Amino acid sequence: MNSDHFVDWLKAESAKSSAAALARALSVSPQAVSKWLNSEVKTISPKTIEALAKYRQEPLANTYRWLDLPMPKNASDPVDVERLKKRQDELERRLDEAMDLLESINVRMHGGFMRPSPLALFIQDQLYKAGYDLRDRQGYRQFMEMCSMSLDGDQVAVQRIISQLMGAAPIERRDYSYLSTVLMPILGRDWNTHYLMEQAINLEKDYGSF
Question: Cβ(132)–Cβ(139) under 8 Å?
Answer without folding.
Answer: yes
